[in-house]
Amino acid sequence: MAVCETCGNDYDMAFEVHAQGAVHTFDCFQCAIEAMAPICEHCGTKVIGHGVQAGEHWYCCAHCARQEGDSGLVDRIMAGTPS
């Protein structure tokens, strides 16, 4: 069994995440997200999708990036859709 580094649960189906040279052990995806996901610097939500990055800053979407002054980022939209 392995102990989750987020909640401390000793679980027989724990899994490892290898990232940036480190190994992390979790008992569920929720704990992995809580420990590893970046936080949007505008709205504070956990970025669990692709998100957007402007330099060293992380945002959940281009709208939040624009709210913080990073105007060069745009969300993908369908042609002809007003932005």
Label this structure with key terms.
83 residues, alpha+beta, 2 domains, two-stranded antiparallel ribbon, 2 helices, 6 strands, Metallothionein
Distance between the termini: 50 Å
Structural class designation = alpha+beta
Q: How many strands in all?
A: 6
**How many distinct helices?**
2
- Tell me, rounded to a whole number, the average pLDDT: 90
Helix content: 10-25%
The multimeric state of the shown protein is single chain
Protein name: Metallothionein
Notes on the structure:
- The structure is a single chain.
- The chain has 2 helices and 6 strands, in the order ββββαββα.
- With 83 residues, the chain is of the alpha+beta class.
- The protein has 2 domains: 1-36, no CATH class; 37-76, no CATH class.
- The strands form 3 sheets. A two-stranded antiparallel sheet has the order 1-2. Strands 3-4 form a two-stranded antiparallel ribbon. It has a two-stranded antiparallel sheet with strand order 5-6.
- β3 and β4 form a beta hairpin.
- The model has no long low-confidence stretch (mean pLDDT 90).
- This is Metallothionein.
- It comes from Nonomuraea fuscirosea.
